[in-house]
Amino acid sequence: MSHGAGLVRTTxxxxxxxxxxxxxxxxxPSEGLLDPVYPRxxxxxxxxxxxxxxxxxxxxxxxxxxxxxxxxxYFQVVTICNLIMILVFYLVHLFRLYRLLTCISWPLSELLHxxxxxxxxxxxxxxxxxxxxxxxxxxxGAIFGFVATFLxxxxxxxxxxxxxxxxSTDAAV
Length: 173
What we know:
This protein is mainly alpha-helical. The chain contains six helices and no strands.
């Protein structure tokens, strides 16, 4: 009996792969391709704020005159790569692609992404701030880099709460 109940619970909590809960998908109108609720969540608003600050930081550094090109090239690479990955995670949640790609643990991959990219962004912002030589564009880019680092730290906390805390409560139940 407990094996059957575990099977039903696993099917419901997996997010519905192909064929899982197919009768329930047509019963709810909000189960389309686009998630209309996600853009209003804290996680989505935090991702948008990160993308905007990273884009501003990139534009500030890109439009400035460089003296040391390697430090600012590193800053630009880190900001653009981070922006692209955050956009990918935003689109995965917005279009509910996590339901189709169940082989990937999306909360864990998002947590790992934020851990690595926050560290790289912090290093890039420190290097950009130390090499700015009082140029306004470089200083502004470094400040926006630090703001984006803080926003990424907030995302780490939210990802940690989603991936680790919910798994420990599921194991206790």
